[in-house]
Amino acid sequence: MTQNYGRGPLIVTVRGTCVALGRGEAAKIVVERSAG
Amino acid sequence: MSDCHSTSVSLQPVITRERMPLLALAGQPNVGKSTLFNSLTGLNQHVGNWPGKTVERREGSFSINGQEYGIVDLPGTYSLTANSPEEVITREYILREQPDLVIAVVNASNLERSLYLVAELISLSAPLAVILNMMDVAKGEGIRVEPEVLEAALGVPVIPMTATRSNGLQDFYHAVQGILDGRHVSTPRLPEIRADHRATLDEILDHIRGYVPPPYPESWVALKLLEGDTEITRTMQSNLPAEKWEAVYTLLRQHDDALLAIASGRYEWIGRMVRAAVVHPRIGQISLTKQLDRWAVHPFWGLVILAGILGLVFWLTFTIGTPVQGWLDTQIVGGISGLANQLLAGAPFWIRSLIVDGVLGGAGSVVTFLPIMIIFFAVFGLLEDMGYMARAAFVMDNFMHMMGLHGKSFLPLFLGFGCNVPSILGTRVIDSKPARFLTILIAPLVPCTARMAVVAFLAPVFFGSKALFVSWGLILLSMTALVLSGALLNKLIFKGQRSAFIMEMPLYHVPNSRTIGLLIWQRSLSFLKKAGTTILAMALVIWALSMLPNGDLNQSYLVQFGKWVEPVGRWMGLDWRLTVALITSFPAKENAVATLGVLFGSNPEAGLAQTLTSTFSTASALSFLVVTMLFIPCMATVAVIRQETNSWGWTLLNVALLLAISIGAGAGVYHLALAVGL
Question: Between B110, B394, B407, which is nearest A16 by CB?
């Protein structure tokens, strides 16, 4: 998680890329630690 | 399958081919692919659309030591799965057209993400070279990439480059010649699917062997089937015998999670490449992009910065663009008109009128808007090229949600302040169809420079020193109409659907003057072509209607039509002349002023302002300006809406919507103004 002010869209960094994500979309994403 | 198996690709010399060698540029968005294309081709390029798609197609040519090469800039894609038209176009082009060389452009500052597409491209049969672009940005971010190591790891040529500064072009030319002459022999190292799904992949391959239609490679088709690619699944369903398809389908159903196995295999492959060739900055080092983004995407300061940029654009437009436009109008178009009047003094009246009023007064005055357009094109090109526009979309996301849209829709709407035509074309960045169509429907409510020019002329005429407040009030009214219409349409037509907002935030980088220059050139050329064709034709039609049947304006068809529709104008306090002025603004918004000039006599420069002030009440004037701001889109915009929606239904809905809004708002403002004694 790169930026999250509690409301509005947020910014996450995935594999070195900054991605803007709507709050609704972010709520649907589950992040799991990889087994490896 | 062998571990990290290698496939030798011996590249044949192209001298036996009759056509010039063909190169295809592929890459993800924001990797500098277009900058490289522009650097290579300069003005030797053609911009069009891919057949049957609203995706831009750019082709061009360049030469190395006298040898001409053709090059195609494929659409930016993240992968080659049939999720979007861009992805289908890219893979179909590579497989069907079989370019002599596919050049994958990757971002050196973000190799991990960029290499995903390379992992797919390398699995196709086409010869491949990789351009490691944005080496300067990587350096600025503290990232060190070793091209030789990456080349050894990938097994295909890797050329480091900074396309914005044309660094690395000579190495690129050398590499292209070497590859196409057959001096380079590539040994690509391909990614492979995760171990737990390899047997399934082999089983699918056995079932489809002999049934795959050309030009698709069998192993690639097997992988795409397992990946759940809809296009390939459809193709194979129709090509396989029923029992074979049943067997394949059963396997696919049993392994519906195979996409993860394929993606993991690719990321594993990417991880190996990155570990070998990239040295990351030490932990804690803050990059330039992160430093700038602390302000640019801040919920409050981000909006302040965006408002400042918008203010700067308007300031530049009104302090530089408008005076230059005025100068062109009076000195150049006015001068030529005067000269034409003198030269044609002995010619029949209708010929003189055709040239002076029809050609110069119609299309000629529209051309004078070019300086204003250039300012907009330059500022937007600059902001886009340096990576700021994604930030603007991000900070506007909350505002756009009021209309059921998201931040990406802000980008085309912002373009609309320059001209609604690029604004409609710009909606292509929106992935969701409902969101795109909703944006198209409301985009013409953004006041373009042409409408602002009409307001800039008429507001001081009617309102004197209060003109500035009236102008800002009109912009505010347009924005309110836009938000309310968007919210209403979203509820009524799109049933409150909300599209997903996922957008990459590219790293900031130094803009490239060549890229921006080419963008200005192409858009200006397109504008001039439009002025010289459709706008000129429409101006001549309007002129003819004002001349026929007997050369007397007052008895002309145009005036008769104006009087016929006058009852509608009356609701808004407009007489037949103002109504005709509105109607003639359909070919080009600026025509409204020109029409009033024609209708109120032959001395528009000195007398029009005074005549208008003494003829119309303040309430009528205000209503006319309101309707002008919200009236139906101009002809060019309507044509582009038809092209982009591919539907007359949506196009007519758009026109009807704006007609209803403008008449409603005009009537409302007129009666309100009368009620308060204006």
Answer: B110
Residue with tokens 């349409």: B489
Over chain B (678 residues), what is each successive 10-residue block's mean pLDDT? 36 48 91 88 74 74 89 90 84 91 94 92 90 91 91 94 90 92 85 88 93 90 92 93 93 89 92 90 70 90 90 78 79 85 84 80 74 82 86 88 84 83 82 88 90 82 83 90 91 76 84 84 80 74 82 82 88 90 82 76 56 85 94 86 89 95 95 89
Question: At B432, is the secondary structure helix, strand, or coil?
Answer: coil
Per-residue pLDDT at B130: 96
How many Cβ atoms sit within 10 Å of the Cβ of residue B172? 22
Phi, psi of B147 (to 5 degrees): -60, -40
pLDDT at position B597: 75
Closest among B81, B140, B129 to B102, alpha carbons compared: B129
CA distance B185 to B427: 43
Using DSSP's 3-state secondary structure scheme, residue B482 falls into helix
Q: Please tell me the predicted confidence (pLDDT) of residue B8.
A: 35
Residue B32's CB is within 10 A of a number of other CB atoms, namely 27
| SS3 per-residue string spanning B40-96 | HHCCCEEEEECCCCCCEEEEEEEEECCEEEEEEECCCCCCCCCCCHHHHHHHHHHHH
The amino acid at B65: N
Residue written as tokens 């030789």?
B148
At residue B666, the 3 state secondary structure works out as helix
B482 with B629: CB under 8 angstroms? no
Cβ count near B622 (within 10 Å): 24
Q: For residues A15 and B78, what is the distance between their CA atoms, to the nearest angstrom?
A: 14
Q: What share of chain B is helix, strand, coil (3-state, %, to 5)?
A: 65, 10, 25
pLDDT for residue A34: 64
Helices then strands, each counted (H, E), chain A? 1, 2
Whose CA is closest to B37, among B2, B62, B8? B62
Structure tokens at B515: 């890229």
Cα B617 to Cα B629: distance, rounded to the nearest angstrom: 19
Chain A residue numbers touching B407 (CB-CB < 8 A): 9, 20
Query: Which chain B residues are Cβ-neighbours of A15 within 8 angstroms?
Result: 112-113, 267
Chain B residues touching residue A20 (CB < 8 angstroms): 390, 393-394, 397, 407, 501-505
Residues of B in contact with A24 (CB under 8 A): 498, 500-501
**What's the complex ipTM?**
0.91
Q: State whether residue A16 is helix, strand or coil.
A: coil
Q: What is the pLDDT of residue B283?
A: 64
Tokens 């497989």 belong to residue: B95
Cβ pair A8:B398 closer than 8 A: yes
Nearest partner of B625 among B475, B520, B498, judged by Cα: B475
CA angle A31, B433, B500 (to 5 degrees): 20
Tokens of B279: 């040295």
CA B190 to CA B89: how far, in whole Å?
A: 23
- pLDDT of amino acid B14: 34
Beta-carbon contacts below 8 Å between A and B = 61
**Residues paired with residue B25 on neighbouring β-strands, in sequence order:** B73, B103
CB spacing of B500 vs A8 below 8 angstroms: no
